[in-house]
């Protein structure tokens, strides 16, 4: 009896420590690398202490693609290091960067399938993101942004567009929580409108074509899901407040687009000559704008994929391969005006194919697709609310489309964001398909 009480107290202490680490990780994921790193690895350590008997290995829908991908990364790294020993350290370092993207099941496991906890963590993550914006958003920064200078506030511009767009979808999808607040409903509605405006305008400050295209396409898909298709059973039809929120979102999106028309025209004027002449683009000459840089990088990636179509070149960073090529056309000026090598291929999908080949790309797609499809089952059963289900789909669609145009996966902010987002999305399906699902369904 005493042993059981001691075990329960120990287990409760672990749960409380993990909950604190979850909230710290959510708030600092896009705010503080040191704090987020400590929180994430605390979750991993606590998981290793508690999870041997309650691990996620019984949730086969997630464990099989996860384990297959991790095994492939290990094998590809070993083979690449054996084939080119002088690059062994680079390949191992690259493997470590990619492997840390697979920590999200730990976040999902500690969420315990609790949707309310996931919502609170998402709100805390949004709060941390807004704090980061406000911390650097002085009058000079805002004035420069309105005059046409691109900004990502406290983060890199294109990555900031992904994060702002994802949290914007959270605000839209969880509109019912604001509109139907039991107390201070007017204040909550005003806060919802303020967040919508701040995140929407911040999205435009990036002046990123990839962000605009990905977000616009996602908006159309989400609208189609909400209005043109049947979602779940009759009891899971979208609430009217969610439709109203989406309608307000579209009105605001159109209004912000009109207000920011000069910024859009400026970006088009800067790039239109290259875009209109891509068919006759001279790849022997250095590029002068971002569209030209992408053309050179995409061609380099395509040629590398054709050389190693099945296995790819290995996990060493793209900068190593670009430097080895010696192509001066793969250089661009830094903020000092000095020419330097590109360190990525400007597309996450191309990065995956270039480094891990078609086989590695299919394994990554299997894992990503498993996350996407796993949302449907609890949603249809009514175990997942419409706002949470819609947000999960919207964020996954937006991230997939954004990844066509940029790459940030090996940097701390993106790694934390991915593990946080994927962990929240996988939380409910993980526990529905895992060991506790059988206990809940048993008479």
From TrEMBL:
InterPro entries: O-antigen_ligase-rel_domated (IPR007016), WaaL-like (IPR051533)
TM stretches of this protein: 20-49, 61-82, 94-111, 118-137, 157-179, 186-205, 211-233, 245-264, 352-375, 387-405
A Pfam family reported for this protein in Swiss-Prot or TrEMBL: Wzy_C
Membrane topology annotation: Multi-pass membrane protein
Membrane keyword on record: yes
The organism's place on the tree of life at top rank: Bacteria
Keyword Ligase (UniProt): yes
Residue span(s) of domain O-antigen ligase-related: 197-365
PANTHER family, per the entry: LIPOPOLYSACCHARIDE BIOSYNTHESIS PROTEIN PA4999-RELATED, TEICHURONIC ACID BIOSYNTHESIS PROTEIN TUAE
Official protein name in the record: O-antigen ligase
UniProt source species: Desulfosoma caldarium
């Amino acid at each position: 009896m005493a042993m059981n009480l001691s075990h329960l107290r120990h287990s409760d202490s672990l749960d409380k420590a993990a909950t604190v680490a979850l909230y710290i990780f959510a708030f600092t994921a896009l705010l503080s690398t040191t704090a987020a790193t400590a929180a994430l690895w605390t979750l991993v350590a606590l998981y290793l202490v508690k999870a041997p008997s309650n691990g996620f290995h019984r949730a086969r829908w997630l464990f099989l693609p996860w384990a297959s991908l991790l095994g492939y990364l290990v094998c590809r790294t070993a083979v690449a290091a054996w084939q080119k020993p002088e690059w062994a350290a680079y390949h191992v370092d690259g493997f470590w960067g990619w492997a840390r993207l697979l920590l999200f099941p730990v976040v999902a496991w500690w969420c315990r399938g609790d949707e309310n906890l996931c919502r609170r963590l998402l709100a805390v993550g949004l709060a941390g993101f807004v704090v980061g914006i406000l911390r650097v958003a002085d009058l000079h920064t805002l004035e420069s942004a309105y005059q046409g200078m691109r900004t990502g506030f406290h983060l890199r511009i294109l990555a900031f567009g992904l994060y702002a767009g994802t949290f914007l979808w959270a605000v839209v999808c969880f509109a019912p929580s604001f509109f139907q607040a039991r107390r201070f409903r007017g204040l909550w509605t005003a806060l919802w409108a303020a967040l919508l405006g701040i995140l929407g305008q911040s999205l435009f400050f990036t002046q990123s074509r990839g962000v605009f295209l990905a977000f616009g396409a996602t908006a159309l898909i989400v609208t189609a899901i909400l209005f043109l298709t049947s979602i779940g059973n009759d009891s899971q039809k979208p609430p009217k407040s969610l439709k109203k929120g989406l309608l307000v979102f579209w009105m605001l999106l159109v209004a912000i687009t009109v207000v920011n028309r000069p910024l859009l025209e400026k970006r088009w004027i800067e790039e239109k000559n290259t875009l209109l002449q891509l068919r006759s683009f001279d790849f022997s000459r250095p590029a002068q704008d971002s569209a030209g840089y992408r053309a050179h990088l995409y061609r380099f990636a395509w040629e590398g994929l054709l050389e190693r179509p099945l296995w790819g070149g290995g996990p060493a960073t793209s900068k190593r391969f670009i430097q080895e090529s010696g192509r001066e056309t793969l250089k661009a000026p830094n903020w000092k005006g000095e020419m330097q090598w590109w360190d990525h291929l400007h597309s996450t999908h191309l990065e995956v194919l270039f480094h891990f080949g078609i086989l590695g790309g299919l394994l990554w797609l299997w894992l990503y697709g498993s996350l996407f499809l796993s949302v449907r089952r609890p949603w249809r059963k009514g175990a997942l609310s419409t706002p949470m289900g819609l947000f999960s789909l919207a964020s996954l669609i937006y991230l997939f489309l954004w990844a066509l145009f940029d790459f940030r996966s090996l940097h701390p902010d993106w790694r934390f964001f991915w593990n946080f987002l994927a962990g929240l999305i996988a939380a409910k399906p993980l526990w529905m398909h895992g060991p506790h699902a059988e206990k809940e369904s048993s008479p």
